[in-house]
Amino acid sequence: MEKIATIVTKDEIQRKVAELGSLISVDYKDRDVVLVCNLKGAFIFLADLCRHITARISIDFIATTSYKGTRSTGTVRIIKDLKLDVRGKHILLVEDIVDTGYTLDYTMKYLALHGPESIRVCTLLDKRCKREIDVNIDYIGFEVSDRFVIGYGLDYDERFRELDYIGEIIQEEN
Ligand code: IMP
Ligand code: MG
User: Fold this and answer.
1) I need a surface site. Which of 66, 68, 105, 114 has the fewest CB within 10 A?
2) CA of 98 to the centre of ligand 1 (A)
């Protein structure tokens, strides 16, 4: 049997997302910004965040893969590319969680090849204690410790993305 312990509540997430949206709105006031959502984990965060941003936004999706179960394989691949032309545009990359940093590092370098005016990063969660490569993050929702978290878009082998809070699976004996 599995039980889920709450790490960040629905209310805490919603308050933080509104706060991040306000910060981003001020920073990008009167600018056009392309929100690039890294699928699949960031899809719910993006959906809530974009409704708190008052700057002129457009939205696109990119998909990367590196994880199998609860472990990063270290090798990042792009499995879905951008559709919009982002040349000369401001990109805000929206991430679910930064763990070792390899996915973000790879994605940033990949996006830079498309010639944007600027790239910034907004992540819901930062698992800073696990970082293996130095990456710069502009907007952070919550820092989490070394545990595998699920919910609000994040999965464990494709399950639990629909939860409206962030939790951790507790394995019960028997
Ligand atoms: P990194 O390349 O090690 O930074 O891993 C980043 C990606 O791994 C994230 O976009 C997630 O898809 C996944 N990931 C890392 N930690 C967790 C976690 O605790 N729960 C769910 N997915 C995670
Ligand atoms: Mg995942």
Assistant:
1) 68
2) 6
